[in-house]
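anyone seen this seq b4? input:
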Amino acid sequence: MSRKVLAVLAVIILVVIVLFATGFWSINQTREGELPDVDVSAEGGQLPGFDADSKEVVVGTTETEVEVPKVETETTTVDVPVIGVKDSGE
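predicted toks r here
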């Protein structure tokens, strides 16, 4: 929608709201409404039947040899940065 159409629609809605809010327009109910009487009769249905064949899924493990890299670690002493707070009185 173009902006002009949206602007016109917004102005119309605003005018209608103002007319109702100021009491220039009012709506009064003149008679009660009621739902229609409905008679329903139905017979039971039947779901469709299916015969499905499927394969069996088998999950398991098997042993095999795989090359895996060997990682070794050693402990070394290094200097690391330290952050602290010093009190002005010390």
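The two ends are 74 Å apart (CA to CA). The CA atoms of residues 68 and 75 lie 23 Å apart. kinda curious what u guys think
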